[in-house]
């Protein structure tokens, strides 16, 4: 991650160039239950979390290197608090940085690598960073502002995603998923969700998932695209729409259709799918025709 910052000198006259390096390095193992929870809070970091065959420890490796050059004075602090309690682990970053002067060059490399038991759960809150999560089978909660996330082979049963100005891609997934997003795009592949509660404002939601018996799927969207590709199963679809474009490909039958409401059925299954679209496109796909 590279940043270039130019700041106007606020007061005084400073002569001579300065170069500063603020490094932080941590490589430590901590005790954790094999189904414990990792609570991570960070900003501006590239985060890599992998579930492994570890049974009672988690490895946390943090490397942050900052180099700044220019005419300036700087006061800053960067710390990471790691705490163990009740078989869980919290990793909370604290940083402040105040610069006065003309900064000609600012470069930051910041990476967090976590190797944990595959059964752990994750609670993550981040700002301006990217996340790659693999082989984690507990519940996952992501609250990300201005960042992207990719989840692979995460086979837990509970997922919660809050995104503002970012993208999320996920391969796999079961159980329930909750989404609250603004200006964000989502892609779910090879999923088997039994319930979905999604509220997306100005973004695309693309889902490739089976439908569960008695499953409940609710989608609310303002301005964007909804693609629901049903891999197997079926149910009843109620789509309320204003200035929207609705299309259905596959063995759907139309139960009711007017200017603001479209009702469709797919097979004889009992899943219920409710979609509310304002100024959005809705595309349904299923095996068949």
Placed side by side, the strands forming the largest sheet appear as 2-5-3-7-9-10-8-6
Shape label: globular
The number of helical runs is 0
Order of helices and strands: EEEEEEEEEEEEEEEEEEEE
Mean pLDDT: 88
Q: How far apart are the termini?
A: 48 Å
Q: Strand content of the residues, in percent?
A: over 45%
* Count of DSSP strands: 20
The SS-based structural class is mainly beta
Low-pLDDT ranges: 1-21
Radius of gyration: 23 Å
Summarize the main sheet.
Answer: 8 strands, parallel, barrel
Report on the architecture of this protein.
This protein has 289 residues and is mainly β. The protein contains no helices and 20 strands.
Please provide a brief summary of the model.
The protein is mostly beta strands. The protein is built from no helices and 20 strands.
């Amino acid at each position: 991650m590279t940043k270039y910052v130019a700041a106007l000198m606020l007061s005084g006259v400073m002569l001579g160039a300065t170069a500063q390096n603020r490094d932080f390095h941590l490589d430590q193992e901590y005790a954790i239950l094999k189904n414990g929870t990792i609570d991570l809070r960070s900003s501006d970091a590239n985060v890599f979390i992998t579930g492994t065959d570890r049974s009672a420890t988690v490895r946390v490796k943090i490397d942050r290197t900052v180099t700044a050059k220019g005419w300036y004075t700087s006061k800053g602090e960067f710390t990471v608090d790691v705490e163990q309690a009740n078989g869980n682990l919290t990793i909370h970053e604290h940083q402040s940085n105040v610069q006065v002067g003309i900064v000609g060059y600012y470069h930051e490399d910041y990476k967090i690598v976590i190797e944990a038991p595959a059964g752990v759960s994750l609670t993550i809150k981040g700002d301006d960073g990217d996340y790659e999560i693999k082989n984690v089978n507990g519940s996952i909660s992501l609250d990300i502002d201005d960042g992207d996330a990719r989840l692979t082979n995460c086979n837990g049963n509970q997922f919660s995603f809050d995104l503002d100005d970012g993208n999320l891609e996920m391969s796999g997934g079961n159980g329930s998923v909750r989404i609250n997003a603004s200006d964000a795009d989502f892609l779910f592949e090879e999923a088997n969700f039994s319930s979905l509660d999604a509220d997306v404002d100005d973004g695309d939601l693309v889902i490739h998932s089976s439908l569960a018996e008695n499953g409940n799927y609710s989608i609310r969207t303002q301005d964007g695209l909804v693609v629901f590709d049903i891999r197997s199963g079926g149910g009843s679809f109620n789509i309320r729409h204003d200035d929207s474009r609705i299309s259905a490909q596959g063995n759907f039958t139309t139960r009711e259709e007017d200017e603001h409401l479209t009702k469709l059925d797919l097979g004889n299954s009992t899943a219920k799918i409710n979609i509310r679209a304002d100024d959005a496109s809705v595309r349904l796909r299923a095996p068949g025709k």
